[in-house]
Specification:
By secondary structure, the chain is of the alpha/beta class. It has 14 helices and 14 strands. The N and C termini lie far apart (46 Å).
Length: 454
């Protein structure tokens, strides 16, 4: 039975502590849209997206009205588009597919569509190579398309050829969107161990093991967790802190389960997973950094930050898996710098550096996310940053990613305003010593010994 206290508690979470459903993401298979004629393929892609997702936005709005639960974003993830590019003759053909995705997203009313993606953790197919080469033009000429490239897995190792190329691709993408300080790069993620059911952008795609269509839901509530820790006070030991986070995560996930099942029933689409990720926003009271500071750190980035984040991430997962049999995606704590008010403050005061963020990515859910660096950062340095993150993911058998923005014309100490959920990014200092010789070796870093598990 639900008592009055629980009802009041939930209302407080929604109205005062920024609890929300961050996204309902519909995964759509485009496997049957492949065609030897690129014009026909574009038509098939557009028609399938607009047909299957025609009621997605309205359904989200109806659930918000009926249950009083804010659903911030409605999104679509599709089969990695590189699978449709094997018959493409030029990179312009791939860009045309990106435009078909963009038109479909605009027609259905979703804010982003993910899946302009390639999985090249071992080698390239023709379609992979064509799509990756087209990314700068595709992202700079669309508004809602998100791209991702998986360059490493624990089983395959690290594709340094792909990593070297992605450094150059990021630089070119930033250059083509220089009028917005490289904002197109905010829609590009480079992964190690990418997951097939992640509902969060910019890295969402509909994996090859998924069905025809599925509904995945992403829940977020950093403010709820911080409020719960405030109630137990600064003298509570870490056992109680972990238990409090776990119980709070359970409640948040149950709400996500409710929305996911309701959306699934109303749309007539199978329910996939609930992704419980503490995804922050620039709003005050919605920060992962402030949760860590509530544990006793003067500022996020101080010594102890990695340990605090590790406990937070683990407790969130433990609470989530008790609330739903289908917790998936990334589930844990995100640390996107520009999207977190506490992270922004920590960078500005010098408490948080890229090196400390890299250490934190060993224990969080993703990786170096929404990092803004000087526009003149060499492509080889960007590639080396990606390689470091890929190594963390491969060795620790976890998902890691890099979403980095070389802000054209900006230097350390400047701030780039992105607006909305993307917030503002203080330009961070990168190590000035060259990685050119390392990146130029190319080839594939072999998989670690623990990849041989059969």
């Amino acid at each position: 039975m639900i008592n009055s206290f629980e009802i009041i508690e939930t209302i407080k979470m929604l109205e005062e502590e920024h609890l929300d459903i961050r996204t309902i993401t519909m995964g759509i298979s485009l496997k049957d849209c492949a065609d030897s004629n690129i014009d026909r393929a574009c038509v098939k892609v557009y028609d399938k997206i607009t047909s299957m997702a025609s009621h997605l936005v309205k359904t989200g709005e109806d659930i918000t009205r009926d249950f009083g639960i804010p659903i911030i974003n409605k999104r679509i993830a599709v089969t990695p588009v590189s699978c449709l590019c094997n018959t493409a003759v030029t990179t312009e053909d791939c860009v045309r597919l990106a435009h078909a995705l963009d038109r479909g997203a605009r027609e259905t009313g979703v804010n982003f569509i993910g899946g302009y993606s390639a999985l090249v953790h071992k080698h390239y197919t023709k379609g992979d190579a064509m799509l990756i080469q087209s990314i700068p033009e595709a992202l700079s000429s669309t508004e809602r398309v998100c791209a991702s490239v998986n360059v490493a897995t624990t089983r395959a190792g690290i594709n340094m050829d792909a990593i070297e190329q992605m450094g150059r691709i990021i630089k070119k993408t930033a250059g083509l969107s220089a009028d917005s300080a490289g904002l197109a790069c905010a829609r590009l993620v480079v992964f190690a161990n990418a997951v097939e059911d992640n509902p969060f952008m910019a890295g969402a795609f509909h994996g090859s093991g998924e069905g025809e269509c599925v509904i995945n839901v992403g829940v977020s509530g950093p403010g709820v967790v911080k409020s719960a820790l405030e109630k137990i006070g600064p003298d509570a030991d870490f056992g109680l802190v972990a238990e409090t986070i776990k119980r709070t995560a359970f409640k948040i996930t149950r709400m996500g389960q409710l929305v996911a099942q309701e959306a699934s029933a109303r749309l007539g689409v199978p329910f996939g997973i609930v992704d419980l990720s503490l995804a922050p926003t620039p709003e005050v009271g919605d920060s992962v950094a402030h949760i860590l500071e509530e544990m006793g750190l003067e500022k996020c980035g101080a010594h102890g930050t990695t340990a605090a984040l590790a406990m937070l991430n683990d407790a969130v997962k433990k609470g989530g898996v008790m609330a739903s049999s289908y917790v998936g995606g990334l589930s844990g704590a995100f640390i996107p710098v520009s999207e977190d008010a506490g992270m922004i403050d920590a960078v500005r005061c010098g408490a948080l550096t890229i090196e400390k963020l890299e250490a934190m990515t060993c224990v969080c859910s993703v990786g170096l996310d929404m990092i803004v660096v000087p526009g003149d950062t060499p492509a080889a340095t960007l590639s080396a940053i990606i390689a470091d993150e890929a190594a963390i993911g491969v060795i620790n058998n976890k998902t890691t990613a890099v979403r980095i923005i070389p802000a054209c014309g900006k230097t350390v100490g400047d701030t780039v305003e992105f607006g909305g959920l993307l917030g503002s990014g203080p330009v961070m200092k990168v190590n000035g010593f060259s990685s050119e010789g390392f990146v130029r070796r190319m080839g594939r870093i072999p998989a670690p010994l623990h990849s041989l598990r059969n």
